C-alpha cells in the first residue's frame, strides 16, 4: 500500500508494506504514480517507508521473480525508472526520509529525491551486484552525480553497504539525525522546504537562465509573504 498524507503544503508519500519490508512490487509502482498525481501542487514532497526498519528494501523479489524474459525485465525497469524520473523532476523540493535501511532498488528510490535525511542507525547500499544484476531505475547515473564516478563504481561494483555516517561522509546522505528525535527533526526540515521560496530556489539551482532567476526573485519580492517576513525582521532590529 502507498499512502499520501498532507501536512499543510507538505505532501508525504509512504510505502507501507511491512510483510515485504516496504519492497517495491509492480502494484507499488502503479500506486506511487497515483500518489505523485495526488501530490501535485505541494510545496515539498517527502518519500518514506512505514515503520523504523526499512525505508525500501529493494524490489519485491518474490513478485518480480515472475519476470523471465529480457523484454519483460526491460519493461519493468523502464516502468520504475519513469516513477523515479517523476520524483527527480518534481517541481518542488523532494526529500527521501530514510527511516530504515535503503538497499538495492531502495537506494535508487532514495537518490531520485533532491535531499536524503537519514536516521543514525540506518544502512544504505547499491548491492544489486549480489544478485548478479545492476541498478536500472536511474540509480547508477544519480549515484555518480552525487559521489563521483570512482566512488560510484566502487560502491555499486562491490555492493558495499554503508552506515549512515559513512554515507553522509561520501555525500550519499545529506544529513544524519538522531533516531530518538528523527520523526520530529525530518518533519521540521521538510516543512521549512515546503515554503514557497524553496520551490523557486530549486528551479534556479537546476540551471534556469539568469533572466529566469531574476524574474523568479522579483515575483517573490513583491509577494505578501516576503513583506510580512521583511517587516517582522525589521521590527526585530528596532
UniProtKB/TrEMBL annotation:
SUPFAM superfamilies: ClpP/crotonase (SSF52096). GO terms for molecular function: enoyl-CoA hydratase activity. One of its GO terms (biological process) is fatty acid beta-oxidation. The keyword Transport does not apply. Keywords: Fatty acid metabolism, Lipid metabolism. InterPro entries: ClpP/crotonase-like_dom_sf, Enoyl-CoA_hyd/isom_CS, Enoyl-CoA_hydra/iso. Signal peptide: none annotated. It catalyses: a (3S)-3-hydroxyacyl-CoA = a (2E)-enoyl-CoA + H2O; a 4-saturated-(3S)-3-hydroxyacyl-CoA = a (3E)-enoyl-CoA + H2O. Belongs to the enoyl-CoA hydratase/isomerase family. PANTHER family: ENOYL-COA HYDRATASE, MITOCHONDRIAL (PTHR11941:SF54), ENOYL-COA HYDRATASE-RELATED (PTHR11941). Could possibly oxidize fatty acids using specific components. This is Enoyl-CoA hydratase.
Amino acid at each position: 500500500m502507498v499512502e499520501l498524507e498532507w501536512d499543510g503544503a507538505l505532501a508525504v508519500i509512504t510505502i507501507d508494506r511491512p510483510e515485504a519490508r516496504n519492497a517495491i512490487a509492480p502494484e507499488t509502482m502503479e500506486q506511487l504514480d497515483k500518489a505523485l498525481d495526488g501530490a501535485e501542487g505541494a510545496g515539498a514532497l517527502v518519500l518514506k517507508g512505514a515503520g523504523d526498519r526499512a525505508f525500501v528494501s529493494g524490489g519485491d523479489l518474490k513478485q518480480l521473480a515472475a519476470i523471465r524474459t529480457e523484454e519483460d525485465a526491460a519493461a519493468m525497469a523502464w516502468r520504475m525508472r519513469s516513477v523515479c524520473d517523476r520524483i527527480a523532476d518534481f517541481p518542488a523540493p523532494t526529500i527521501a526520509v530514510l527511516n530504515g535501511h535503503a538497499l538495492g532498488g531502495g537506494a535508487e528510490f532514495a537518490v531520485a529525491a533532491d535531499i536524503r535525511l537519514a536516521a543514525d542507525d540506518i544502512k544504505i547500499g547499491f548491492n544489486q551486484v549480489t544478485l548478479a544484476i545492476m541498478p536500472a531505475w536511474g540509480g547508477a547515473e544519480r549515484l555518480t552525480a552525487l559521489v563521483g564516478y570512482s566512488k560510484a563504481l566502487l560502491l555499486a561494483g562491490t555492493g558495499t553497504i554503508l552506515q549512515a555516517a559513512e554515507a553522509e561522509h561520501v555525500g550519499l546522505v545529506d544529513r544524519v539525525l538522531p533516531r530518538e528525535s528523527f520523526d520530529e527533526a525530518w518533519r521540521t526540515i521538510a516543512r521549512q522546504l515546503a515554503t514557497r521560496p524553496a520551490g523557486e530556489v530549486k528551479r534556479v539551482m537546476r540551471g534556469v537562465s539568469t533572466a529566469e532567476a531574476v524574474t523568479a526573485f522579483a515575483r517573490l519580492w513583491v509577494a505578501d509573504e516576503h513583506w510580512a517576513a521583511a517587516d517582522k525582521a525589521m521590527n526585530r532590529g528596532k
